[in-house]
Write a structure and sequence with these properties.
The protein is an alpha/beta fold. It has helices spanning 21-32, 39-48, 52-63, 69-80, 98-106, 122-131, 171-182, 184-191, 204-217; strands at residues 9-14, 36-38, 88-92, 113-118, 132-135, 141-143, 160-161, 195-199. α1 packs across α9 (204-217).
Amino acid sequence: MSDINKKPINIVLIGPPGSGKGTQGKILSDFLGIPHISTGDMLRAESATGSDLGKEIKLLIDKGYLVTEEIIRPSVINFLRSEVCKKGFILDGFPRSISQAEFLTDENIHIDVATQLQISDENIVIKRLLNRVSCIKCGCVYQQNTKRTAVCYSCGAQEFKRRAEDCKEAIPKRLDIYKSKTEPTAKYYEDKGVLVRVDGSGCVWIVEKRIKKALIDRCLIRD
Ligand code: AMP
């Protein structure tokens, strides 16, 4: 499965928090040789600078709310229009609402495929979020209840952190926002004929295989 089309490929990942968008986005990015942009990571990076904007972002993220359109849209569009995206991109965390999806369309950002990671049992997602840790050095994500968390497989670091928003107080709000605002974007892309639904339950490599199969079926990559 390594013979990849030379055409640019623009991918959007849709799914509830904890569905594996970040993990699968990074895997796809390595496989396809195109950048993975996570708007959550982008916003957390700004928040970590401690700037006034960062503080404003942190307040919203930690409570499980979406950040304002004025903050998110310019950063996303600048990145998508930059040289690094000329061979395509994997967009994770944007669009999170119909109006953000329309914004991409209005800005002439073509989407080849919107991949929705579906997890029918909400308890699985909640468990994943409560156990999620990431390497402080490279950001690689693990589940705390696996022995992997002692040393990062990717960079060898031995310290891990949790996201402030992965807490019992913020998770219900985030899941509500996903259902009411973000999930309708799947229908938006379905109507445009570019949606693929992928079962996001199970281990990382099984979900990876499902996504790649969906891309092959759509003739976006070759087997
Ligand atoms: P994520 O890492 O994708 O779960 O995003 C973490 C948080 O960043 C979200 O809960 C929102 O507060 C914020 N965020 C990420 N992407 C967006 C977006 N497209 N629009 C508004 N807020 C966003």
